[in-house]
Amino acid sequence: MGAVHGPPAGSGHVVNRVLVAVSASTLLLGLVARFLGHEAVAGFVWMIGAFPVAVSIGIASAVRLMRRDAGVDVIALLAVVGAMVLGETLAAAVVALMFAGGRALEDYAEGRARREMSALLDRAPRSANRYLGSELVQVPVEQVSPGDRLLVRSGEVVPVDGLVESAAAVLDESALTGESLPVRRLQGELVRSGVLNASGPFDLLATTSAADGTFAGIVRLVESAQQAKAPSARLADRYALLFLPVALVLAASAWALTGDPVRALAVLVVATPCPLILAVPVAIVSGMSRCASRGVLVKGGGVLEGLARGDTLFFDKTGTLTAGHARLTAIETVDSIDPDELLRLAASVEQVSQHVLAAAIVSFARQRGLGLSKPTDVQEEHGAGLAGTIDGRRVAIGSHGFVSRFAPSSDWAELLRKRMRREGAAGVFVAVDGVLTGALLLGDEIRLDTPRAIRLLRRAGIRRIVMLTGDHGEIAEFIGEALGVDEVLADQAPGDKLSAIEAAKRTSATIMVGDGINDAPALAAADVGVAMGARGAAASSEAAGIVLLVDRLDRLAEALAIARRTRRIAMESVLAGMGMSLVAMLFAALGYLPPVTGAILQEGIDAAVILNALRVLRTTPFGEARGRLDASEGARLAAEHHELGPVLDRIRACADHLPVLPEAAIHAELAELDALLRNKLLPHERDDEKNLYPRLEPMLGGDDPLAPLSRTHREIHRLGHLFHHMTEDLPRGPLPAEVVQDLQRTLYGLDAILRLHFAQEEEIYHGMSEAA
């Protein structure tokens, strides 16, 4: 029989172990004395063993009473003291041992449940290997400053956040993300402190000090979480307020009706409410531990309980539902310029620009393997655009107003500007040799894992999802419709977000998810705040009760499922334990269960409810994965789609330009596109169907889980073959309008289904990948 309320954790564990040793040894010595016929000695030894336990219970109960906190340990105190007063010394010794043993068992359970969180604190690096000129010097990690060049040896923990200076680094990020497989980081990529070097040594350029790094922030959060008081009193004492008077009334009634105080003692012995004071905290801490193992830091047991009750979810848009940074989403061209050539010319000029969009354009061009040229005669107007000469061609890139100075505008440009406003995209127009030749569209794309995360959150029990954003209504509605959220609140300042959450709290339990400094007030106001700690601001992580240490939104759905199961198991343990105790109390009141037997029976109930509470540690939200794609294979599959990006751009560009292409160019353009489809795209789809899908299906489980995607493959092949036959049957000379329309209809259909198909596959690959 145990209690969660007593001395602080460190000293309390020692006291509990001492009490177990004393009560166990005196119980054994007393039994030996009784066996030898020394009844008086046995009783005296048992009293000695029970007394310190009674004192410990009394001190804990007094402390709680001074805090005006109704204590349930009073029943255990009455049982031990009552047995001593009535001369039932053996019962007193057994109850004392069971109580001390329950405490020790609870200590063990909590220690096991906190293992993942404590292991994180033990990983903190103490020193770093810093280059000093050509020498390597070991310095305390506190002396590392941004800009220092460090060497991270094999098997060492990365001491600070930084950029990989070597060609590549292979890292074990499981302590932060929960992913079991190593992750490869290439030169220039960011590495977070706290991860383990799983391969050869590599150089690291420090970008933060140790105190400001990712790992230090996580350590502070973990320490805060471990010091937080679990909400066992709230959940347990609600039932204890009913259970305690029932036990006292039943004990008093048994004594009054029979005149036998031993029956009252027996009732109190089996009434000690260990299921209340053990099962709840063990389940709660186990749930926190399980969340930590999946890269979700829950700062306290109360937060986990709040998460389990949550049914209304608020999302900030930028950086939470979307990627939070500009990415090239489309290349729009006019006339017959190749989309890749337009991108190459634009990126070549943008190499010298410091504009935030320039980096995205240059990065995308390099990902496509385009050879960029050095610009000359560059003229830049800050915030508007720039112009330069690339391989003898004069290129202007920037806003519509800026580029219009170098080339006349057109109706096409005006239509594109309207589309950009609707979709919330940024666009840079490109003019080549005085002709407006196209535009590059950039936007904040929906995160790859967002659709799956929203589906899993609904599956986990969320009833209402609201998107909060500072964007204007048209853009916000466009994103909201794509995601399928229940409500979109646009034009939201930080104060507006706060008001929306306060209003929702009147009728539901709210959860707010955000990543920026401006989200901190809303995170603090919600019943549960969730911060995207892997990429978000420190202010949001401090304000939130939950921090996602891994940059995957679907982990929130896992944490929600774990929280709900934790609460359910805790309730099961409480109700089952109380039910068994009530039955035992009735038997004791009727005289069928003596105090010693009752004490042993009660300890069996304790063990059962604790073992049931520990089931939380085996929680596998949404089923156990039968297999995972390793990081390298996931990256390869994503790279294959990226390499096919120019083919998709070419399909759309060809469909757009067919009506205006000159007669001399139209046959060549269609033939080239047909060759791309037959030699590059369709073989890729056949290989996926033949080789990739059979490997993925056993990992996904179920009956033919990829059937919809296989059906899409067939439609892609059908449209590809249809286009091939259409190009073979083209009449010579000018194409009739109906032929052009048929070709456009086929190409637009192929473009739409390919983009949807790629998005579905990438979502599956991301969900199955071990890479964070």
From TrEMBL:
Reactions catalysed, as given in the entry: Zn(2+)(in) + ATP + H2O = Zn(2+)(out) + ADP + phosphate + H(+)
Q: What is its EC number?
A: 7.2.2.12
Q: What is its main location?
A: membrane
Q: Which positions fall inside the P-type ATPase A domain?
A: 124-223
Which terms are listed as keywords in the entry? Answer: ATP-binding, Cell membrane, Membrane, Metal-binding, Nucleotide-binding, Translocase, Transmembrane, Transmembrane helix
**What Pfam families does the database record attribute to this sequence?**
E1-E2_ATPase, Hemerythrin, Hydrolase
Q: Which organism is it from?
A: Rhodanobacter humi
Give the organism's phylogenetic lineage.
Answer: Bacteria, Pseudomonadati, Pseudomonadota, Gammaproteobacteria, Lysobacterales
Q: Start and end of every Hemerythrin-like domain?
A: 636-768
Q: Which domain of life is it from?
A: Bacteria
Protein name in UniProt: P-type Zn(2+) transporter
Supply the enzyme class, top level.
translocase
Q: Which family does it belong to?
A: Belongs to the cation transport ATPase (P-type) (TC 3.A.3) family. Type IB subfamily.
